[in-house]
User: Which sequence fits this backbone?
């Protein structure tokens, strides 16, 4: 599902004397359907960089990233947007939404954008919000005014609303209480069970051991020059 | 070309026929012919200074001067009346500069210059009706740019005209435009019919030639005989040629456009035909209105 | 899928000075593209060339017309181009007064495009105007008020309603949030985003405000001195800018 071949990434700082910083080279990762791969490595080793490259948020310097057959390093913006809409989900710890949109619609939106009828989408959104213990009285409010923890859980609900065949999870369980952590891990297991290919970053070792089938140390991809 | 007298005395005293020189008249006639060929289209022309202020009919006078022939009979009306200052002075102007016959009778005139009315009596073939026009551009009040309005005419972009009517209805509940009501000529050009009451709009499909002259704005336009002239409207707010719901108090006519006259400080009102010739002719024929006096008795 | 708009090698010079040059891109149905750059970078010149307000010196602007497929709008006749700009295209000006008739009521402003394409039923025009005022969050009791009585944000929303009432497929926007208070901007952006998504509009938005494009645009084109220096997915260009100028632009934004 996700095939990363000989991927490299450099940053060129034009405004600081044109310094070229190589941050990754020779990265090879393969994730099949129903598989969860955990990225490990010291802080700054490039875990998030790799995730962002796969999501198309960073531009690769070389190599190939195939997600469901589409090479993200070469794709047109609209192809990447279509990929993100239909097949590649991304859950980060931080919620970024437009003000004024009610929580229920924030969660239902990924479903609506793939053409699920509004009623079905809302039912699914309600189920997820309930499971993640967001009180029902908040559903009609915009999440922008929620606490950090609530925002994080809304974001997870949104990320798991549509059943993406490929998912990127950036610290989904960070700072959650035991109950909600358990819910998120179940959601990940359910996604695996339906065949989703997942790449995740978990600092929570217990969580990592529970859901990840394999672990990859991104320090292996750190270029010599920068090491 | 008309020859001028060449004696020094005559040169001092004589005007060329109908005041304007022949070259100017030819220029105006060309504009008129072009206007007739493109009904409703505003033809620019080199308007001359006339011995009267703008707003007093300089456009109409130039058009009249260009079409008058020595054998013509001229009638001049202002708001339907032959006896108002403007009508009287223009009539005298042509009596003096062209030496032509004048009349107050619609049927006897071959050229009728008018300000803001169409005579009640149907005009016939061979007659010419000359309108005085203050602002020839119907789109002007909403679009100040002449470049843009010319483009709108050439591309038939007339949505804006309906915006004006829309504004009327939204503000007054009905199309409140009562005069200078826009028309579409022969399904092509939207035209300002000059500030005639909309009551007169249906009469514009007539047997006579209609010429429009705007002196200050330097435009001439025309409607040939038997040309289709449609007043703009909405499906659910159709055009209505309205008039005061009353009969003429002098001649009893219930089909003519009426002027409302305030009689005293107590608000006593009287409705009389705006077309003085029409009213006089009816009274002469024996018709008497509610406040009228039979003609035979009134004549001393 | 065929592009809605294909721009090929557009160039416009003002004497010796370059307005914009060698600009090419395809815009697909439903795509929103942002054009960013500082004042004088050529982004407004480009937008005006695309929208038919300026004639480019070279290049083609192909638009997928409903009746005849791909047509070069640069060489098409003026009546055809003006018809497009009244039906399939919309142009939202930075200053609402450039895009509104200030002496005509809100309802008349919205209704004008309908009347321009032949609507002749007052009741229907009015109910469509009310519907559109509602969509841009202007209460229907304001329908007979003139835009002069509206706040800047309301005027801008009215301009948007007036533009979208005929269901255009391509919207050009020139700094649509420029000159508005930040809170008013947010509301307008939110509204625009909703309308663009709901109607499946394609849009080209010129702005110097990177927050605006982050929220509205799918992809970005960065211009400097009349040249396109970088293009790509919006979040990629903003988070991983490649060109020196884009890096400078992104790093110059004050963090709140």
Assistant:
């Amino acid at each position: 599902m996700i095939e990363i071949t000989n991927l490299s990434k450099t940053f060129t700082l034009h405004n600081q004397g044109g310094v070229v910083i190589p941050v990754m080279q020779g990265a090879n990762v393969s994730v099949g359907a129903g598989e969860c791969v955990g990225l490990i490595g010291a802080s700054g080793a490039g875990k998030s960089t790799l995730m962002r490259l796969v999501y198309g948020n960073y531009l690769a310097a070389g190599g190939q990233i195939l997600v469901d057959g589409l090479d993200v390093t070469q794709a047109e913006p609209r192809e990447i947007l279509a990929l993100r809409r239909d097949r590649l989900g991304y859950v980060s710890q931080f919620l970024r939404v437009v003000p004024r949109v009610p929580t229920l619609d924030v969660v239902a939106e990924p479903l609506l954008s793939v053409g699920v009828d509004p009623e079905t989408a809302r039912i699914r959104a309600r189920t997820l919000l309930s499971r993640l213990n967001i009180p029902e009285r908040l559903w009609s409010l915009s999440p922008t005014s929620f606490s950090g923890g609530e925002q994080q859980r809304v974001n997870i609900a949104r990320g798991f609303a549509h059943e993406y065949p490929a998912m990127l999870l950036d610290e989904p369980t960070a700072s959650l209480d035991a109950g909600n952590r358990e819910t998120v891990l179940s959601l990940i297991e359910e996604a695996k069970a339906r065949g989703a290919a997942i790449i995740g970053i978990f600092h929570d070792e217990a969580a990592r051991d529970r859901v990840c089938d394999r672990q990859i140390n991104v320090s292996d991809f750190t270029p010599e020059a920068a090491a | 070309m008309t020859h001028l007298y060449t004696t020094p005395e005559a040169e001092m005293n004589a005007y060329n026929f109908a005041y304007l020189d022949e070259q100017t008249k030819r220029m105006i006639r060309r504009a008129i012919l072009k206007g007739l060929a493109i009904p409703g289209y505003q033809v620019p022309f080199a308007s001359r200074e006339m011995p009267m202020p703008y707003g007093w009919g300089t456009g109409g006078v130039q058009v009249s001067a260009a079409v008058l022939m020595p054998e013509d009979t001229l009638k001049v009306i202002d708001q339907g009346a032959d006896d108002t200052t403007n009508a009287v002075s223009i009539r005298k102007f042509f009596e003096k500069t062209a030496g032509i016959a004048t009349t107050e009778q619609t049927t006897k005139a071959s050229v009728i210059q008018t300000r803001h009315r169409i005579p009640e009596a149907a005009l016939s073939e061979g007659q010419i009706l000359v309108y005085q026009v203050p602002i020839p551009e119907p789109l002007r009040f909403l679009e100040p740019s002449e470049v843009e309005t010319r483009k709108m005419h050439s591309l038939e972009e007339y949505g804006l005209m309906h915006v004006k009517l829309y504004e009327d209805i939204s503000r007054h509940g009905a199309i409140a435009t009562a005069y200078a009501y826009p028309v579409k000529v022969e399904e092509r050009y939207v035209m300002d019919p000059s500030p005639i009451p909309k009551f007169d709009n249906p009469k514009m499909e007539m047997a006579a030639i209609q010429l429009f002259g705007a002196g200050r704005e330097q435009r001439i336009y025309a409607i040939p005989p038997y040309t289709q002239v449609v007043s703009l409207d909405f499906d659910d707010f159709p055009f209505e040629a309205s008039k005061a719901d009353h009969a003429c108090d002098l001649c009893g006519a219930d089909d003519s456009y009426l002027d409302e006259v305030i009689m005293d400080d107590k608000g006593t009102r009287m409705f009389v035909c705006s077309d003085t010739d029409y009213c006089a002719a009816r009274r002469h024929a024996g018709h008497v209105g509610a406040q009228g006096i039979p003609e035979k008795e009134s004549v001393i | 899928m065929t592009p809605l708009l294909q721009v090929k090698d557009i160039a416009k010079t003002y004497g010796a000075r370059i307005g914009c040059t060698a600009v090419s891109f395809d815009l697909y149905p439903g795509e929103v593209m942002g054009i960013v750059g500082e004042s004088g970078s050529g982004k407004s010149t480009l937008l005006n060339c695309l929208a038919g307000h300026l004639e480019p010196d070279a290049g083609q602007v192909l638009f997928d017309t409903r009746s005849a497929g791909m047509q070069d709008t640069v060489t098409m006749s003026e009546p055809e181009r003006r018809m497009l700009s009244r039906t399939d295209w919309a142009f939202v000006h930075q200053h609402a007064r450039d895009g509104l008739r200030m002496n005509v009521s809100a309802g008349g402003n919205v209704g004008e495009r309908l009347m321009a394409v032949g609507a002749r039923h007052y009741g229907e025009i009015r109910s469509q105007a009310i519907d559109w005022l509602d969509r841009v969050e202007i209460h229907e009791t304001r329908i007979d008020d003139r835009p002069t009585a509206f706040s800047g944000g309301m005027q801008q929303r009215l301009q948007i309603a007036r533009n979208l009432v005929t269901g255009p497929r391509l919207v050009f926007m020139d700094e649509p949030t420029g000159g508005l208070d930040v809170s008013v901007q947010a509301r307008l952006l939110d509204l625009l985003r909703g309308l663009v998504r709901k109607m499946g509009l394609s849009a080209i938005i010129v702005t110097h405000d990177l927050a605006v494009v982050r929220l509205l645009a799918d992809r970005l084109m960065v211009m400097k001195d009349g040249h396109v220096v970088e293009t790509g997915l919006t979040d990629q260009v903003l988070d991983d800018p490649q060109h020196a100028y884009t890096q400078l632009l992104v790093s110059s934004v004050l963090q709140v």
Notes: Chain A has a mean pLDDT of 92.
